[in-house]
Amino acid sequence: MKPVDFTLHQPTSLEEALALLADHADTAKVLAGGQSLVPLLNFRLARPEHLIDLGRIRALKAIRRDEHRLSIGAMATHTSAGRSNAVLGSAPLIHRAVPHIAHQAIRTRGTIGGSVAHADPAAELPAVMLALDATIVAVSHSGTREIAAKDFFVGNLITTLQEDELLSEIRIVPSTGRTGAAFLEVGRRRGDFALVGAGTQLRLADDGVVKDIKICLTGVSGRPHRAEEAEAALQGKPVTQELLDTAAESVRDSVDPSDDLHATADYRRDVAGTLVARAIRAASDDAHRVTK
Ligand code: FAD
Predict the structure, then answer these.
(1) Number of domains in the chain
(2) CATH number of the domain to which 24 belongs
């Protein structure tokens, strides 16, 4: 199918984009990489009268890091974030998650901001941003809001972003010290959205105990999931098989997956626990390698 007719706007500055959005807020859609939106347009599941393409706004593509902050522009692509040394050094969980997103062609066009704004509960980056306590920066013609990731994701494809707002940037406090990360998935075919995904980023103290741990899951509820009880079970302790088993069980108890054509809820729940235990082990091994 083909989309319904729309007017395409291609602003070259953020100010221009925000003015267009203010003029057409309830009839406009923002176009980023188009990897989710274009299929929705073609199936006529989205019928905007105006498309505001962010692709010519260079300022939105930047990835920057200073001592206190990693800043990823909304229009940075999955590929550019995956190849960025600033991302690898500050938030290795993003680096580990990116290769699991779709196929290379989609990663080349799909954007970090598009994925986070789209808020698919099966997508890797919304869950990763939740785990990393990212700050989502939303801009409109009337100002800027900083939204904690935990307050941003409301439900399946639903966020607290307003109709006249753009996601301009994602900010993350850089990791320090012996930090390791891992992202693991179970899916039916490579490149498809996974049935379940689990990511862990952790920092080890000099004596080997876990100082700071973040665990996220995809595909286990209507929005990205953070496994806070499993995090608490590991905090301040060395990674042992007994604690991994405890973490896995607490994840199985805390997630709320659904049955669908691809897998039962029970299968997803079981896999979620197993993947979290394996991801913690892999992240811990990764952190140990940092010291060598
Ligand atoms: P678009 O498609 O352009 O936009 C998506 C939505 O977000 C639209 O509603 C748009 O208006 C809004 N939006 C975009 N940018 C902004 C912004 N800056 N501010 C406000 N709103 C904005 N993703 C995964 O995470 N994992 C996968 O395994 C995966 N597999 C895929 C497989 C296929 C075959 C395809 C086609 C896609 C897959 N995707 C997957 C989706 C892909 O990652 C997309 O890149 C991503 O979901 C959306 O990014 P985009 O830049 O293409 O956004």
Answers:
(1) 3
(2) 3.30.43.10
